[in-house]
Automatic annotation (TrEMBL):
Residues 23-226 form the LysR substrate-binding domain. Belongs to the LysR transcriptional regulatory family. InterPro entries: LysR-type_TF_proteobact-type (IPR058163), LysR_subst-bd (IPR005119). It comes from the Bacteria. This is LysR substrate-binding domain-containing protein.
Length: 230
């Protein structure tokens, strides 16, 4: 039966091309994405795509580890811009973002505030395990061209951003959270930023895929997800 696979794939490709010619993309799209990308970019834009294109099915696998999209059978991936290989075609999905170090007022009442990145070594920090890489994500800071990397310690190590954020919001430690996701809590005083001058911005989520012809379904999805500055 394997000998039929190339022929079946060619038929499927031809049907998809015909659908595109008719203005109705169809078929399946398989995506790998960061959990962050799933809850921000996809959660807000993917439902509208599905309603507009009923003949397209989408499979989304959220996984923060590095993924070889070709070897693992994905049509495209979503990662932060700095993590995408240069030989991939990349489409920006959001503007530059920034991770900020935050804690609750109660936490700082008990432990004080760090004045420099090195001070984090004396604090309870929520660490993130790099699944696939094996180690903990380093706490990296940059100011006036000077970079500092800190190996912070704490009670909790996670590989899930929502769990890390929950621990920070409960006052169990300090964490690096996306600035736009905590902006309201900071404005209301429920969370407090520290080391703000040491937290630079970096490229936000991009969709990426191999430099080859893409299906009409993926093309339509890209146009829906693409960041359109106002």
């Amino acid at each position: 039966m394997r000998s039929l696979d190339p022929a079946l794939a060619e038929v499927a490709s031809g049907l998809a091309a015909l659908a595109d010619w008719r203005g109705t993309p169809s078929g399946a799209v398989r995506l790998t994405t960061l959990h962050y990308g799933a809850r921000t970019v996809l959660a807000s834009r993917l439902p509208a795509f599905l309603l507009k294109h009923p003949d397209v099915s989408v499979e989304v696998i959220a996984d923060d580890r590095p993924v070889d999209i070709v070897a693992e059978g994905f049509d495209a991936g979503i990662r932060l811009g700095e993590a995408i290989d240069s030989d991939m075609v990349a489409v920006r999905l959001e503007p530059d973002v920034r991770a900020v170090i935050v804690g609750t007022p109660d936490y700082f009442d008990r432990h004080g505030k760090p004045g420099t990145p090195r001070d984090l070594e004396a604090h309870l920090c929520i660490n993130y395990r790099l699944v696939g890489g094996g180690g903990l994500r380093p706490w990296t800071f940059l100011r006036n061209g000077r970079e500092i990397t800190v190996r912070a310690k704490g009670q909790l190590i996670v590989n899930d951003g929502l769990l890390a954020a929950a621990a920070v919001r409960a006052g169990a430690g300090l964490g690096g959270l996306m600035e736009h996701e905590v902006a309201e809590e900071v404005a209301q005083g429920r969370l407090v930023k520290v080391l703000d001058d040491w937290c630079p911005s970096f490229p936000g989520c991009h969709l990426y895929y191999p430099n080859r012809q893409i299906t009409p379904a993926l093309k339509a999805l890209i146009e829906t997800l693409r960041w359109k500055p106002e």
